[in-house]
Amino acid sequence: MTDAAGAPTAGERMVVLGRLAAPWGVKGWLKVHSYTDPPAAILDYPVWQLARPGGGWQPVKVVDGRTHGAGRDLVVALEGVLSPEAARQFSSRDVGLRRADLPAPKPGEYYWDDLVGCRVTTSTGCHWRPGTSRKSTSRRSASSSTGIRRFSGMDAAGPRLSIEVVTLFAERVQAALAMGVVGRALERGLVRVGTEDPRALTTDVHGTVDDRSYGGGPGMVLKVEPLATAIERAAARLPAGSPRIYLSAQGRRFDQATARRLATLPGFLLLAGRYEGVDERVLDEVIDEELSIGDYVLSGGELAALVVIDATVRLMPGVLGALESAEQESFGAGAQGSLLDWPHYTRPETWRGREVPGVLMSGNHAAIRRWRLKQALGRTAERRPDLMAGRELTIEEQRLLDEYREERKT
Ligand code: SAM
Fold first, then answer.
1. Is 125's pLDDT higher than 60?
2. Smaller CB count within 10 Å for the chain: N or C?
3. Cα separation of 151 and 187, whole Å?
4. Which protein residue's CA is at the shortest distance from atom 24 of ligand 1?
5. pLDDT at site 153
6. Residue 251 or 3, more confident
């Protein structure tokens, strides 16, 4: 350990650039979640300040570091940390640097701390002020892939939805979230997803998180500790009242209505199980509800967590660009109601002798609307009659459904 750089004095401005994760290997290396862009830029700094659990900062020298595997994974060796047990003391600690030691941001980019207290006006005319607390600084940095944020494209006042995932595979979850619609929502700061790895909180040499099942039988069970502590740590980063949800084959079926409910919340926590599942007492003590993504058994809850996050985030206003694009999809909340989507076509007009339906190229918007509603009604009645069961058809809908059925006969 070195204090060559010295710990920052109280009141010195700090910027959070990443977070130490679980120990890696047998030599005391640690994985790092980097918020810099590119992620490996965090390795440019030979001395890091680590947030102390009770407050304040502790300087450590980085003696080695490199990317590991695909994507954003980084691993580092810290001076004097030579075993997994020693490394575990540093798990889940924020990595910071003095603001004064960071390079000047490029034009159009800002460090979060530089904007605290400023009035930010976005390209869509929203106004907001970045928060002033140290906690808020690190969280907001964590929601982006970079410690430097571009504000010109932002649509809203910081993350509107905070999600925490408790998982043994935090890096994999973060990597999967980085792409597509959710990745863009994270990048724009509309949503924040944090992770908590129970293994990083273990104190034994093997990092044990599971044990044999009382009563016998095959398979291991996730132990109450450190799981409960991991859930409570993650929950503490969420707005008060955020539900804690366990992904489970035994839960209530996750559907579009649930995604819509979650999209209106300020936050929620997802617990991804592994092995045979979770000690039931954890569920009784700290979990509010259980959700299943279907009647089959997955090896772990991570894929289910990703499904819930994807389906929820794309429903948040501003994420898809126009709210209508979500409303008009299958199970949408718009005029179409809980019907399946209609068929879509794009160029060319003819492909292998198959033509695009003429009405779609007619420019007659009333006829197009009618055709689409007819297809949505017909498909839903054919493929998912259960969705039609509780639906009272209007006179127009009944007529269109009859037409659809007649046309299918011919
Ligand atoms: N013994 C459990 C059972 O029969 O219900 C299955 C455990 S499964 C192998 C391991 C983990 O995968 C679970 O703890 C849960 O988090 C997750 N999981 C499995 N199937 C799921 C589903 N259909 N929906 C959501 N999560 C699921």
1. no
2. C
3. 11
4. 292
5. 34
6. 251
Q: Which residue has the higher pLDDT, 333 or 261?
A: 261
Q: What residue segments make up the domains of the chain, in order of their start?
A: 159-323, 334-409
Q: Say which DSSP state 278 is in.
A: B
pLDDT digits (tens, 9 = 90+) for 365-378: 999 999 999 999 99
Q: What are phi and psi of 57, to 5 degrees?
A: -130, 155
CATH number of 334-409: 1.10.1270.20
Q: Does domain 159-323 have CATH number 3.40.1280.10?
A: yes
How many whole angstroms separate alpha carbon 277 and alpha carbon 290? 12
Q: Using one digit for the tens of pLDDT, what is the confidence trace for 216-239? A: 999 999 999 999 999 999 999 999
Residue 50 contacts residue 94 (beta carbons within 8 Å): yes
The CB of 304 under 6 Å from ligand 1? The reply is yes
User: What global pTM score does this model have?
Assistant: 0.67
Q: Is ligand 1 within 6 A of the CB of residue 274?
A: yes
Helix, strand, coil percentages (3-state) for the chain, rounded to 5, are 35, 25, 45
Percent with pLDDT over 90 in the chain: 60
Tokens standing for residue 73: 């994974």
What's the maximum distance between 2 C-alpha atoms anywhere in the chain? 84
Q: Is 157 in contact with 230 (CB distance < 8 Å)? A: no
The best mutation among 168, 245, 298 to test binding of ligand 1, ranked by most ligand atoms within 8 Å of the C-beta, falls on 298
CA distances from 189 to 143, 144, 162, 170 (A): 6, 6, 10, 20
Say how many CA atoms lie within 13 Å of 395 toward its Cβ: 0
From CA 273, how far away is CA 277, in angstroms rounded?
5
pLDDT value at position 15? 80
- d(CA 266, CA 268) in angstroms, rounded, equals 7
